[in-house]
Amino acid sequence: MHKFAIACIFLFSLCLMGQTDQRIYDIINKVSAERIKNDVTTLVNFGTRHTLSDTISNSRGIGAARRWIKSEFERISNNCNNCLEVTYQRDLVKKEESNRIPKDVWVVNVMAIQRGTTYPDRYIIMSGDIDSRVSDANNYTSDSPGANDNASGMAGTIEAARVLSNYKFENSIIYLGLSGEEQGLFGGQGLVKSAKEKGWDIIGIFNNDMIGNIKGGDGIISNTDFRIFSEPVPPTETERERNMRRFYGGEVDGISRQLARYVYKNVKTYMPEMNPMMIYRLDRFGRGGHHRPFNDAGYAGIRIMEAHENYTQQHQDIRVENGIAYGDVLEHVNFDYAKKLTSVNAINLASLAWAPPSPKEVSIGGIVEPSAKFKWSKVPGATGYKIYWRDTTSPTWDHSRFVSDVSEFTLEGVVLDNFFFGVSAVGKGGFESLVVFPNAIIR
Question: Which of 289, 261, 215 is closest to 434 using CA atoms?
Fold first, then answer.
C-alpha cells in the first residue's frame, strides 16, 4: 500500500508538470486581428511618424501618434480599474550626436506599467517602435506610413496590453512604445539609462519590429514562420566569465539566448502550428533593433519578427518603379499573422509574469563521475525546480527533470562531460522562470 501511494504521488507529479494552463489558451483566443488592423490603420493615417516630424498637429506627425498611443493605454487602464501606470519617458538628443539627427529633438517614449502583486519591481517588457521613415533617413516631411515597420509591432503591443490587463500577475509587465529607432536606437538608449538609474530588475524585453508581412522578397509566403534573434552572451561579461567558458562551455548560453529558448519552448507547447526559428545572431546581418540597447546594458533582450522580409516595402519612398510598387503601406500587412505574433508575445509575457524569479546561483559538479550534481539558491514562491540538459550541439533544451522543493540534486547516469545543463524555478500552475546556466562549480 505504501509503495502504491508513492507511485500515485509520482504519477500525479508527472501529470501536474506536463499539463498546460487553460488561461494561456484563453489569451491566444482573445487577441484580435480586427483590433490590430484598426490600430495599424490609425497609426498609418498620421501620415508620417518620423522622429523629427511635426509634434504640434493633432492629425499628422509623431506628436499626434504618441499622444494617441498614450490615450489608448489610458483607455485600457480605465477598463481595468486603473491597472496601468501610463507615462512618457523622454530625452533630448542633440544634433551632433548622430548624422541622422539634423536638429535637436526630444525623443519621447510611451510606457504603460502593469504592476505585479508579488514582485512589482521586476519587469518583463514588450516593445514596438513608434517612428517611421522613407528612403532618406533625414526626410521628416514626406509621407511615411510605416504600416509594417513598425505600426504592426506597436499595434501588437497595444493589443497585448488590452488582453493581459484582464489578469493579475506576480511580476510587472511593461508595454512600451519606443521612438528614435530609425535615427539610431535613441528611445531604447534613453529608457535603459532611466531603468539603470531606478535600479529596475528587468527579466527581459521582447522587441517586436515588423510582425505583419508574410510574403518575402524571394517569393516565399508563410503565415507560420517567424524569427527569434538573440545574441550568444552579454557584451558586459567579465574576463573571468570569458575564461570560464573555455573550460565549462556556455558560448551560446547567455541570458538573451535563454529568453529565446523560453519563447521557443512555450510556442511549441501552446501554438504548435507556428514555426519559431531560432536565429543565433543579435539581429539581421549588419542591422539593428531596439533590443540592442538593453543587450548593451547587460539585460536579456530578443527580437521577434516575421521570417520573410520584403525589402521593397522597407525604408522606401512611396512610388512605382519598373512595375514595382515601393513603400510600407497598409495593404501589405497581414493582420491574421500579426495576431499570431502578438499572441506569441502575450503568452510569454504572461508565463514569465506568473513565474517565480530564476535561481541566482546554480552550481554544477560531477567531474570524473558518471553523474551530474547540482546545487542552487532557493527561490521564494517556487514549488519546485526543473533541471534541463541537452546535447552540446543542440540549440534547445531537449531533456528535463522536475524535482521537488529542494536545493540540490544528482542526475545519476548522466555524464557531465557530454551535455550542457541548466536549472529553472517552477511556481504555481507550473509556470517556470528562465533557465539559468551554471555559474559556479562544485568541487
Answer: 261
